[in-house]
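#data-curation
PF: Archiving a pair of folding outputs for the training set. Convention for this channel: one message per protein, sequence first, structure tokens after, nothing in between. First:
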Amino acid sequence: MMKESVCLLFLIFFIAITGLAMREMVIIFKDGREIVFDSSEIEKVYYRGSDENSDITGKWYGDKGIRNIYINKQGIYSIQLENGYTWSDYVLYEGDLMIFKTPYPIPIEYFLNYNIPEDIAEKGQKIIKKPDEWLFLLSEKGNVLSGQKNCFIITFSGDKLFDIDFVERNSEWCR
């Protein structure tokens, strides 16, 4: 590790003295393979599993029908609904935007959590072609994830499914 740090410092020093601009980032694996990236295209570099996500690590309380959310340092979240149904996945990032999704196809238990009868849930499951998702930004104080939820709304009566709409609505989770 010390040798790699010295080499990196030497490279930075060499570039600073010679005025060369770095154009490529090269990753060299132990077996000799290399991957080259155009550095002007790179927005962010990090190690998965690092403390990258420590600012959102912990227990959150969310939106309608959600009992709680746990997010660990590796960016894995677990959402538990009021009816006990739970799923886990990785937080997806697009810049500062964090994306949390339901499993797809959406499980029957997810529908049941929102008091949708099982026969309507089974019909809806066949029609819905994408997961529900939360698109969040972290507040300055780090205690609120807020943004929007892209989700479905089912209109039904008895055993008749009338309509499925896809809507965006405001949503937030708090520590």
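PF: Second:
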Amino acid sequence: MSIDGEMETDRAATTALRPQRPGGNELPALLRAFYDALFASFGPQHWWPGRTRFEVVVGAILTQNTAWTNVEKAIARLRERRMLTAEALHRATPGEIAGLIRPAGYFNVKAARLKAFTDRLFERHGGSLRRLFRLDDGALRKELLSVKGIGPETADSIMLYAARRAVFVIDAYTKRILTRHGLADHAADYAGLQRLFMDNLPPDTALFNEYHALLVKAGKDFCRPAAPRCGPCPLNPYLEGDGPLLQKSHGR
């Protein structure tokens, strides 16, 4: 889930990971150590909040560039009006949807995106989310990305949290943490950052779910854009090592 801003780019450019990075089993061990430190400090995050898989899809679209608390208000309004189904949103006009999702911000844009998704669901999959989710990983991601307004982060959030696929979601928080810990350069693209996790961790949906949520919490509470709170951060020990990946880079 992306909160307070998305990293919706998926360029084919070469990933700008630092050339001096761990080899062999060192990087998988480091990523696992990050996870263990975050989990020990924060505990389970219980993502994604949603009563149905369709509600999770709606949440993934509404949470673009806004806080989750605002999304919850919008979802509550949709639920009150019995609009939290694919059929209801498919039948509704963009204006009707926009009026209900105002708390989520950018309500006209997001209403159009919800309409685009539900219209595609009915055009190609008989209105069935279950049928859509029968596609293999590559086909499902391609289908999601073909919907206007759905970028890599939103597509992967839908795949991980709604379709329950082992896909790692990258957001601005994750990139900030990786660059400050020397694991990636600022020029790193979405696909490259995603490979960093997926090539070095087991393809485990539950692990990817929890890891992404923990990184978001660390980014919000400690690894802030300005004046990061490095001292009390659970990942602080990994800023103090001697290796090329563990150098301090607080100002980055």
